[in-house]
Amino acid sequence: MTGGSVVISGLGVISPVGLGADALAAALDRGISLAPVGKLRLEDYLRSAKTYLDPNSSNALAASSLALKDAHLVVADDLAPAVGVSFGTRLGNVVTTETYLKMVREQGVKLASPLLFIHSYPNATVGLLAIEFGLKGTSFNFNSGRFCGLQALIQAFDELRSGKMSVMLAGASDTYTEVTRPCLAGAPFAAAATLVLERAEDGYRRGVRPAVEVAGAGLAAAGDDALSRALADAAAGWPQVDWLLADPAADVAAPGASARTHATDLCGTVGESGAATALVGLALAAAALRESKLPAKLGLASPPRSVAVVSADESGAAAVILRKISD
């Protein structure tokens, strides 16, 4: 493995699949059953009390706390490396936005809460992550189609490959309200997922032995093209992957039509949760790779060693290839 490799050293999810990396591993063993997240006890995840948080931000903060813990990374430590953040959200903090706009309509702008106003921005969550965890590196917010969760991770991947950063938090979160829910087919879930990405050499330096590499990534207008670019980016000697997790909208055929590749409906597996859908799927795939889990109830005959996750909608597509690092 070259010094330029990018690895996943931490997983954190607040999702219908479960809470945390252990829940992902357990779901792979027993079979996945989806359930709404419910209200979190933030004191179980964060160091300081909060006066107000949008549910979308709450989930993102909790998922990031779990990811950092899983990576054995204490960012607040002065000796810790500078850590950046790249986060995606399809709808932003819609609960707060709707509450604030209701106050404006009923009471006027002067009486509407300024606290709600500052929490209504789509990039408010990224700012809260940087403040809560003392993130001093580069900061990105992606607020577009459902594929923007993977887009955020690809940006983090590029920051690490280019040598601009040594550690990045990459993730996505989305919640829905009665107003925004009808824009989707099926019942959406609130969810957030965060992955800790770092350069392999930096991970080894701090005593981490990661098991999963981000091998390649691609962005395009359509799912097939995004996957082709990701495979080319991975400089792969193989034209297929073991496990393909893809949005139905991505319209991706199993690469090379190989019998080795097993395709799974991403939304049907981890639940519809906007931009967080692909990141929860990616975290599930990473858990399967690093724990050598066989998700038999999802149709795989053996534990995967390479996984592709593809997310797409009418606005674009993104794909990421994960690969198990040889022992």
Describe the overall structure:
It is globular, with a radius of gyration of 19 Å. Helix content is 33%, strand content 22%. Strands 1, 2, 3, 4, 5, 6, 7, 8, 9, 10 and 11 form an 11-stranded mixed beta sheet that branches. It is of the alpha/beta class and 327 residues long. The model has no long low-confidence stretch (mean pLDDT 88). It has 2 domains: 200 residues, Thiolase/Chalcone synthase (Peroxisomal Thiolase, Chain A, domain 1), CATH 3.40.47.10; 111 residues, Thiolase/Chalcone synthase (Peroxisomal Thiolase, Chain A, domain 1, 3-Layer(aba) Sandwich), CATH 3.40.47.
What would a concise description of this structure say?
This protein is α/β, with parallel strands linked by helices and 327 residues long. Helix content is 33%, strand content 22%.
